[in-house]
Design brief:
alpha/beta, Rossmann fold, five-stranded parallel sheet, 7 strands, TOR1A_C, ATP hydrolysis activity, Torsin
């Protein structure tokens, strides 16, 4: 794994998310360098769509596992979308999750396990992994303590946005927002809002190491996403010259913003940037 590159990737590719950068740059390297951690590292990413939750999980996978960076696949990265389940049987879902986690960690004790769209998971099912993320030394000859578990969820997104906007209205910089300001709101939202972490044992037992807020993105952040997309996917080495600042402004204006009076935040974050750029490039 490439820990210096992880920090560089987050600092240069992730926009508008100072808290996520801070938490991940602190906790992930610390966990990876620890030869005998007391428990698995568990991070829960929260925020509305397009803020960078999935993007950051990809950055982690690429920097922790070279094969994933080269091919987009690795036996040591297991991403489970909670929309995959074709049953409402909680027992079967729990068994499937436990089996996938066990198989991954059996192959590599430094596995990265990602649960996407946690908000649609049937409440109670995620507690199936509680023994794996608890302070348990070894379970059935498998040591889970070196692994990293990440939950991605939209829950708490409304509270994060409300707090961020109130901060803005008070005249303060969003970069002055702290984990102390937001983490209690997120953990409460995750525990009380309908979704995969609703009334979960893993929250009650404090097994999630950090609830990481992904803030709503402003137009200046959208422009940075457009800039990056032009370099990475459109072979534009100097986007401010070709296709130019006016092009970037035009694409950013194509997205919808809220609230109605200030239009400060993008409704879809950077999620639709690629499609908007591609359409404008063809016009």
């Amino acid at each position: 794994y490439e820990l210096p590159l992880l920090e560089h990737s987050l600092n240069t590719q992730l926009h508008g998310q100072h808290l996520a950068k801070h938490v991940i740059n602190k906790l992930v390297p610390k966990h990876m360098k620890d030869a005998a951690p007391k428990k698995a590292l568990v991070l829960s990413f929260h925020g509305w769509t397009g803020g960078g939750k999935t993007f950051v999980s990809e950055i982690l996978a690429k920097n922790l596992f070279r094969r994933y960076d080269e091919t987009g696949k690795s036996n040591f990265v297991r991403r489970m979308s909670c929309t995959e389940f074709n049953t409402n049987d909680k027992y079967l879902m729990a068994q499937w999750i436990r089996g996938n986690v066990t198989n991954a960690v059996k192959k590599c004790d430094r596995s990265l396990i990602i649960f996407d769209e946690m908000e649609v998971l049937v409440p109670g099912v995620i507690d199936a992994i509680k023994p794996f993320i608890d302070y348990s030394p070894v379970i059935d000859s498998i040591d889970y303590r070196k692994s990293i578990f990440i939950f991605l969820s939209n829950t708490g997104g409304t509270a994060i946005t409300k707090a961020t906007y109130e901060y803005h209205l008070s005249g303060r910089e969003r970069t002055d927002l702290t984990m102390k300001d937001l983490e209690p709101l997120i953990s409460s939202g995750a525990y009380n809002e309908e979704g995969g972490l609703y009334k979960s044992d893993i929250i009650e037992k404090n097994l999630i190491d950090a609830f990481v807020p992904f803030l709503p993105l402003e137009k200046k952040h959208i422009k940075l996403c457009i800039y990056d997309y032009l370099i990475l996917h459109c072979n534009k080495s100097t986007p401010l010259v070709d296709p130019g600042e006016e092009f970037i402004r035009k694409v950013s204006d194509e997205l919808e913003y809220f609230p109605p009076d200030t239009k400060l935040y993008s409704k879809t974050g950077c999620k639709r940037v690629g499609n908007k750029v591609d359409v404008e490039m063809e016009v």
